[in-house]
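Priority: medium. Attachment 1 of 2:
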């Protein structure tokens, strides 16, 4: 729950920033000189990129959460079996051991979104965020209902 609150606060702050930057960009364009118009267009590009990034990230998080809810309902969420130090941090050897099992599970069933979801969690526990994200994207792409929704949204554009 804490992560959701932080995410929504961050998203709200970004939206305020996008509105402020966009209004400054429009103000520069309205000034009318070639220099201010050029800077105004450049300033407007930043909020457009930011909104796109925020939208794609929100879609990713929403879909990953849908997978997590479904996997939890099936009783298939990975159990936290990681050893921790006295400060609560995951021990690297423990994370590597669990990761090796999850990777083997995924290699045995490469078309199963569940194994890719669990592999993404193992990557995250091993502090390999880029690979965790790619594994979760793979899980999302393999899920039948999410794959169908993504195709529908692409067909509209």
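Attachment 2 of 2:
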């Amino acid at each position: 729950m804490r992560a959701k609150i932080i995410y929504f606060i961050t998203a709200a702050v970004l939206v305020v920033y996008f509105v402020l930057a966009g209004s400054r960009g429009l103000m520069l364009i309205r000034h009318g000189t070639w220099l201010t118009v050029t800077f105004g267009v450049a300033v407007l590009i930043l909020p457009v990129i930011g909104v796109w990034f925020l939208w794609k990230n929100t879609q990713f998080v929403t879909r990953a959460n849908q997978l997590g809810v479904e996997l939890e309902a099936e009783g298939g969420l990975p159990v936290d079996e990681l050893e921790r130090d006295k400060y609560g941090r995951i021990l690297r050897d423990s994370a590597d051991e669990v990761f090796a099992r999850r990777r083997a599970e995924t290699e045995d069933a490469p078309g199963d979104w569940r194994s890719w979801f669990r592999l993404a969690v193992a990557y995250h526990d091993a502090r390999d965020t880029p690979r965790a994200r790619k594994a979760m994207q793979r899980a999302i792409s393999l899920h039948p209902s999410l794959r169908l929704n993504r195709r529908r949204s692409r067909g509209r554009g």
